[in-house]
Specification:
It is found in: Cytoplasm. The chain is 38% helix and 15% strand. By secondary structure, the chain is α/β, with parallel strands linked by helices. It has three domains: 3-182, SPOUT methyltransferase, trefoil knot domain (Alpha/beta knot, 3-Layer(aba) Sandwich); 199-265, Trp Operon Repressor, Chain A; 266-322, no CATH class. The protein has helices at residues 49-56, 93-106, 125-132, 149-155, 171-182, 223-226, 230-248, 250-265, 271-280, 287-298, 308-319, and strands at residues 3-5, 10-12, 30-36, 60-66, 79-80, 90-91, 113-122, 136-140, 158-161, 215-216, 219-220. α1 (49-56) links the parallel β3 (30-36) and β4. The protein binds S-adenosylmethionine (SAM). Residues 116-119, 141-143, 145-146, 161-163, 165-170, 173 line the site of S-adenosylmethionine.
Length: 322
């Protein structure tokens, strides 16, 4: 069987997903450790496609710690009934503590300790970006009713949620977090894929995407995308990104708009730069009515810069984004 060598290690092309998770530690490689009762669920989807290829190429590494190995007694128990009564079972602190001690002993550099939990801070792109700049992460997957609180306090564990819903265990959440983080590591995305222009990278949702055929069931691709005019295409994509964000996620839009406005009008300070700004932003016969409508509805509330040229640019920018 052909061997694939990438300097750090060699593996066969027929390697099974579990073979991708090596015992040995590759120094300097971003590393995810997962504490779980279901180690057989890994790498799962992470062994496929881009994340799987990157794992095979040694761009990141993955290991599991089986919580059952630290279980107590003949039956290797890991859980017990909730103090104070109630339904379900809770993961024991002594068992989880031993597994975490092992994870800490194996990790190096900055490796945040994270418990997947519906009570946690909501996972987002910024968190993925920060985690991709660490040396790795250790993820604790809960099961049953969750984990004894003292473990979280003792180790200063960060709780992270995938969203406002409850799953049966942390494994799917761990795989989602790892996927979103690993694809931001250098070299993981090929040329065809880019994290630069996609949703959230600039605080906005992504513009609509189209591909061939040019017409499908009487629906045509917008002309501008077929024009070959890169400047116009970039302008259209930016406007669509803003419109989609404004319509679907007012929370993201209000966070992004002040920054976008500042960036847009930054270079305007005299008649010539205002004129260039208006041209660049496609001012046309619709500009006048849009400005009037803006002034009628919000005129009194808008704080304007002192420089009158910049103030005009700001009014125009806001008028075009009702
Ligand atoms: C049934 S849940 C426990 C829920 C817990 N009793 C509560 O109400 O917060 C079992 C495990 O699934 C994982 N889990 C469930 N929903 C999650 C979510 N939205 N985000 C991250 N992890 C989640 C956690 O690891 C949790 O310990």
């Amino acid at each position: 069987m052909a061997l694939k060598s990438h300097g750090r290690k060699s593996i066969t092309v027929s390697a099974k997903p579990r073979d991708l998770m090596e015992e040995q530690h590759l120094s300097g490689v971003w590393s995810a450790q997962v504490i779980t009762l279901l180690p057989q669920a890994f790498p799962g989807i992470l062994g496929e496609s881009l994340t799987g290829k990157a794992l095979r190429d040694g761009l990141w590494q993955l290991s599991t710690i089986n919580l059952r190995d630290y279980g107590l007694g003949k039956h290797l128990n890991v859980d017990d009934t909730p103090a104070g009564g109630g339904a379900g079972m809770v993961l024991r602190p002594d068992v989880m503590g031993s597994a975490i001690d092992q994870a800490i002993a194996q990790s190096r550099g900055r490796t945040p300790l994270i418990y997947l939990s519906p009570r946690g801070r909501r996972f987002d792109q910024q968190m993925a970006r920060n985690l991709s700049r660490a040396d790795g992460m250790t993820l604790i997957c809960g099961r049953f009713e969750g984990l004894d609180e003292r473990v979280l306090e003792h180790y200063g564990v960060m709780e992270v949620s995938l969203g406002d819903f409850v799953m049966t265990g942390g494994e799917l959440a761990a795989q989602a977090m790892i996927d979103a983080t690993v694809r931001l590591l250098p070299g993981v995305l090929g040329n065809a894929e880019s994290a630069v222009e996609e949703s959230f990278s600039n605080g906005l949702l992504e513009h609509p995407q189209y591909t061939k055929p040019a017409e499908w069931r009487d629906r045509a691709i917008p002309d501008v995308l077929m024009s070959g005019h890169h400047g116009e295409i970039a302008k259209w994509r930016q406007m669509m990104s803003e419109a989609v964000t404004r319509a679907r996620r007012p929370d993201l839009w209000s966070a992004a708009r002040a920054g976008l406005l500042d960036d847009a009008v930054a270079g305007v300070h005299d008649a010539a730069s205002l004129s260039a700004f208006l041209k660049r932003h496609g001012a046309d016969e619709a500009t006048g009515p849009a400005l009037l409508a803006l002034l009628e509805t919000r005129g009194g509330d808008i704080a304007l810069p002192n420089n009158p040229w910049q103030a005009a640019a700001q009014l125009f920018w806001l008028a075009m984004r009702p």
